[in-house]
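Feature request disguised as a bug report, sorry. It would help if multi-protein outputs had a clear separator. Right now it looks like this:
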Amino acid sequence: MPSPSSQAARRIHVYGHVSGAPQAIASEFGGTVSSAPEHESDVAIFVINPAAGIDAPTIALWAALDEIQIPRLVLVNGLDGQELDFEDAVMVANRVFDQLVTPYLVLHHDDGSPAALIRLHDLSIIDYSTTPASVRPCDPEHEELVKEFREEFLEQMQEMDDGAFAAGILFPAIPINLTNKIGIDIVHAYIKSLPSSS
């Protein structure tokens, strides 16, 4: 269980092609962009943009960190357009990184822009169109829409204990949007869940 000192500074390293805006992500979470595998790190954040795919240097960095089992998050950034799809980005990452878990899926406005996340654990919706974000139960049509994704997620989680993320063996993929703050709170919660490095 993390100690109350979970507010302690963490060594956060951000990796990814410039299309994923790693510098903006590093600024948001108090991290440092790196182009080499950082072994003295509390968490590695890999940023991918669905429109650009995942480049070879980023894949090599992921593989280099496999040996030391640093906790890793995959953030899917650049979800502004209708064609940029979180699930597609995760499918690509599953092929070139490791099997990821998707605790949240994106819900869109009618115009295709991301508006909310649905938490697969309990099917609640986090609506980022309100300030602060509000949480409500999902509608029956959403429940049906995410049924298969939820079954797969719950099955993956059955094999993992609570410390799997901190142990560097469970890799959550989180959809984020820096403009309307989608997913930012979730990433902060993952970082805070890690034991402090002091």
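(second protein starts here, but nothing in the output says so)
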Amino acid sequence: MDYKRIPIYLHNQVMACLRTHLIQANQLLHTQYKEPKIIYKPKGSIAGSAFLIRWEIQLNSIMLLENGMHFIEEVVPHELAHLIVFKEFGKVKPHGKQWQYIMSEILGKIPTTTHRFTVQRNTYLYYCKCQQHHLTSIRHNKIQNNKTSYLCRKCGTILKLKRAN
């Protein structure tokens, strides 16, 4: 699956959710906040991020593709609430009372701070003298770029990448 591109139907669902909640917020707060820019990134364990100054929302494209509407209905309002809180109250605690107020009273959502979406992680198989090790792409890249090496905690030998036959 190509995680870099979001199908148009999913993007349209993201935008419909965003617009619905933004209209609701603008009506209740007597504001005219414009639509934030939506960016998709195919990595990490973070479902979404709000870039306050740039008025942007970044969504995890892998989680979006794997979870569809459940992801959209949970993450889009969550990140929109961060943007609205910044405009209304300035720089405050990320999931503090102002954010909880915007989530519950303005957007009509339960103010949960963390997601429960599964995170697919690519790992690389390494070995030592006594066992196999699964390393993250971050550690793998550090080894490949000669930045570091890792030792097995049991036998003390340097981990080597298991090459495919």
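Even a blank line would do. Unrelated, but nice: The radius of gyration is 21 Å.
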